[in-house]
Amino acid sequence: MSKFGRKGKKKNPEISTASLPDIIFMLLFFFMVVTVMREDDPKVKISKPNATETEKLEKKSLVDYINVGPPVNKILGTEPLIQLDDSFADLSDIRQWIEDNRERRDEAEKPAITTSLKVDKDTRMGIVTDIKQELREANALKINYSVNKGSAIDN
């Protein structure tokens, strides 16, 4: 036997977990800062009209938005254009767009889908009437108009 023998096995020191909450919160803040929440990039200029009698929509996840107004890019002209999601569209594209949005949702949610029209207050009513006619033919009968809450005579 040796003079300097080992009296027991040497244990490895335990890993400190004191800094673990700091690391988790740093990751959480990083993802909160980096994550972008957006609906669509507006390609048309919309200044909503004012209204006195307004209601807030309950489930915004069941709302499909149609934007109508003059394009932000002046190269495209000054006439009102229709924006569906992130692209410009014609009246004939609305019916297919409604069908595609219905297919993406569950069967139970389909009766509650609302189509919201965000229309610039200076847009003529003719294009809005044409859009409503296309929505009727697509059987999208729940229509909402996006407005600013305020007096209707404020301009």
TrEMBL record:
Pfam families reported in the protein's UniProt record: ExbD
UniProt-listed GO biological process terms: protein transport
Sequence intervals crossing the membrane: 20-37
Highest taxon of the lineage: Bacteria
Localisation per UniProt entry: Cell membrane
Molecular-function GO terms, alphabetical: transmembrane transporter activity
UniProt key word Transferase: no
Record's keyword terms, sorted: Cell membrane, Membrane, Protein transport, Transmembrane, Transmembrane helix, Transport
Cited InterPro entries: ExbD
This protein's GO CC annotations: plasma membrane
Membrane topology: Single-pass membrane protein; Single-pass type II membrane protein
Family note: Belongs to the ExbD/TolR family.
Name of this protein: Biopolymer transporter ExbD
